[in-house]
Amino acid sequence: MKLLLLLCLFVYSVHSQEYDDYSVVLPTSGDALGPRAHRPSSGFDRYSPNQPAPPPISGGSRYRGRPSTTSTDVTTEAQTKEVQPDAGGCTHLSERMGVLCPTGCELKSTILKQERNVKTAVSKLKDDVSELSQSSNTIYRYVDGLSNAFRERQRVSNENGNVVGQYTNDLEGQHAFVKDTIDTTFPSNIRVLQGVLQSLRDKIQKLETAIMSQRTKCDKPCTVSCPIPVVSGKECEDIFRRGGDSSEMYLIQPDSFFQPYKVYCDMTTEKGGWTMIQNRQDGSVDFGRRWDSYRAGFGNIASDTGKGFCHTPGEYWLGNDRISQLTKMGPTEVIIEMTDWSGAKVQAMYQQFTVQGESTGYVLSVGRYSGTAGDTLLQGANELVGENRTMTIHNGMMFSTYDRDNDKWIPGDSSKQCSREDGGGWWYNRCHSSNPNGRYYWGGPYTKDMAKHGTDDGIVWMNWKGSWYSLKAISMKIRPFFGGAR
Ligand SMILES: [Ca+2]
């Protein structure tokens, strides 16, 4: 634009110079030329008059006079000269006059007119440029924001890549560990477990074999298979006197009217000859039995432990009929030996011991106590006094089982049965100071909560261990009384 303006000013200057030169040459004739004829002075711009002109050249002309016809034509042409417009357009009215160059004024007007257009265009262009600049700024900021967002995304992407890489590394490590574990540890453990499993299978098979063996044995009642010594007699004292001096199972026949039966003979204690009528030692036999069972006897007389003879007694009750018969054959003494869970041993001996027959309820008669366990059968419980103690004396009592109430506790009242509450068959009064046929408790001390009916139903000998201690072992052996002298 500036270049265009400079170009226009240059053209204007050239035209002005040409015009001035032209004005000097041309005569100042007529008022048609207008105000350009003078320039009023002002200030120091004073008019200075022209210098006097030198005299013209005179003398003879080198030319001859012109022909007359040409002068006439010139006059005519001068007379018909047309007045040409001074402003507006670049062409004469007559085309033969050629093109008329614009005057400075016309050019200025044109330029001013164009300048307005140009200004308008420039103003619009400025607005456009400003708007474009704003748009450019907006776009720049937008692009800049996009760049920042891209860089942020790139950073986040890089960080995610790092995290993924780390996670991948960890995962690969774990995978390697798991694979190594599966490839090495698992097979080893599986082999160990397979060995354990095989061992367990072997044990189970052995147990099944043992169970089958026991089932086969239990299909028939337990019998003693060990050989019976040839020596026999009416009872153990008779056998002892016949030469049987080893403690083991023998066959006795007290009376020829009865069949011989097996019994364990103690040939060592107190000079031997003792017939065992009762034995408790391990709880292997249930003593909570009916009247008939106590009458006939139950349990295991003895067992073979592999030495070829039955030298070890089992838990058993010889039977009230047999006991009655043996004790009624003559004066009989009894020794009651007992052991607690610490291994301590005491005994109670009665030089008189008789059991009447079933018709009188197997009434017990004892007398002449001696020993270390304390006399319960004659004296009752030492810790009780008066009638309460009398109620615990067993001498003179009938035998009772849970299905035959012969005790002194409200006879006739089926709800008051010593045998039912104290666990065994015995010569209960109301009810006991000793209970050799009671329940077998492992360990010794027991409580009411452990007892079936809350009573002292253990293997009790009150005058040694009290009511709430169940003995580990107890046995009753009888022998014909002979005053200790053989
Ligand atoms: Ca009763």
Summary tags:
14 strands; binds calcium ion; 486 residues; alpha+beta; two-stranded antiparallel ribbon; Gamma Fibrinogen, Chain A, domain 1
In short:
This protein has 486 residues and is α+β, with helices and mostly antiparallel strands. The chain has helices spanning 2-25, 68-79, 104-218, 236-241, 291-296, 320-328, 386-390, 418-422, 462-465, and strands spanning 232-233, 248-252, 261-266, 274-280, 298-299, 302-303, 312-313, 316-317, 332-339, 345-355, 364-371, 434-435, 460-461, 473-480.
Can you walk through the features of this model?
This protein is α+β, with helices and mostly antiparallel strands. Among the domains are: 190-223; 236-480, Gamma Fibrinogen, chain A, domain 1 (Gamma Fibrinogen, Chain A, domain 1, Alpha-Beta Complex). It contains nine helices and 14 strands. The protein has helices spanning 2-25, 68-79, 104-218, 236-241, 291-296, 320-328, 386-390, 418-422, 462-465; strands at residues 232-233, 248-252, 261-266, 274-280, 298-299, 302-303, 312-313, 316-317, 332-339, 345-355, 364-371, 434-435, 460-461, 473-480. Strands 1, 2, 3, 4, 5, 8, 9, 10, 11 and 14 form a ten-stranded mixed beta sheet that branches. α1 (2-25) runs antiparallel to α3. The termini are far apart. 25% of the residues are buried. The protein binds calcium ion. Residues 405, 407, 409-411, 413, 416-417 line the site of calcium ion. Residues 29-89 are annotated as: Disordered. This is Fibrinogen beta chain. Keywords: Blood coagulation, Coiled coil, Disulfide bond, Glycoprotein, Hemostasis, Secreted, Signal. Pfam families: Fib_alpha (PF08702), Fibrinogen_C (PF00147). InterPro entries: FIB_ANG-like (IPR037579), Fibrinogen-like_C (IPR036056), Fibrinogen_a/b/g_C_1 (IPR014716), Fibrinogen_a/b/g_C_dom (IPR002181), Fibrinogen_a/b/g_coil_dom (IPR012290), Fibrinogen_CS (IPR020837).
